[in-house]
Amino acid sequence: MIRGIGVDIVDLARFERQVLRTPGLVPRLFTPAERELPLHSLAARFAAKEALIKALGDSAGATWQEMEVVADEHGNPGFRLSGGVAEVLRARKISTVHLTMTHDAGVACAFVVAEGDS
């Protein structure tokens, strides 16, 4: 059963301006492993985290560091969730979170489906 869906899109040029204007933004939004990635990948990960928050319905209990975007052995994106975000998923009976991301033509986009048992 689908418990929530979320989508977010990020303008890459605007994201880059924000990162350059606010140096503390990257450490606040991304885990140490994510920070090593190029800017377009960070923008897609930001979109993924925003899409997850939308799929959950709100950001209560969620912090940026508890939502890490990782790749599986095939390179497919997913989340490593911990802390308050993991608790929110349990409380809302969400057992699986599906993620897809893309970046092209100056934008990054992410789509999330939160799924759980009935």
From TrEMBL:
Catalytic activity: apo-[ACP] + CoA = holo-[ACP] + adenosine 3',5'-bisphosphate + H(+)
Pfam families per record: ACPS
Enzyme Commission numbers on file: 2.7.8.7
Cofactor(s) for this UniProt protein: Mg(2+)
GO aspect biological process, one term: fatty acid biosynthetic process
Binding site for Mg(2+): 8, 50
Record InterPro entries: 4-PPantetheinyl_Trfase_dom (IPR008278), 4-PPantetheinyl_Trfase_dom_sf (IPR037143), ACPS (IPR002582), Ppantetheine-prot_Trfase_dom (IPR004568)
Domain (4'-phosphopantetheinyl transferase): residue spans on this chain: 4-85
A GO MF label: holo-[acyl-carrier-protein] synthase activity
Any one annotated GO CC term: cytoplasm
SUPFAM superfamilies, A to Z: 4'-phosphopantetheinyl transferase (SSF56214)
Subcellular location: Cytoplasm
EC class name: transferase
UniProt record similarity statement: Belongs to the P-Pant transferase superfamily. AcpS family.
Primary role: Transfers the 4'-phosphopantetheine moiety from coenzyme A to a Ser of acyl-carrier-protein.
HAMAP family xref list: AcpS (MF_00101)
Protein name, UniProt field: Holo-[acyl-carrier-protein] synthase
Organism of origin: Cryobacterium fucosi
Lineage: Bacteria, Bacillati, Actinomycetota, Actinomycetes, Micrococcales
Gene: acpS
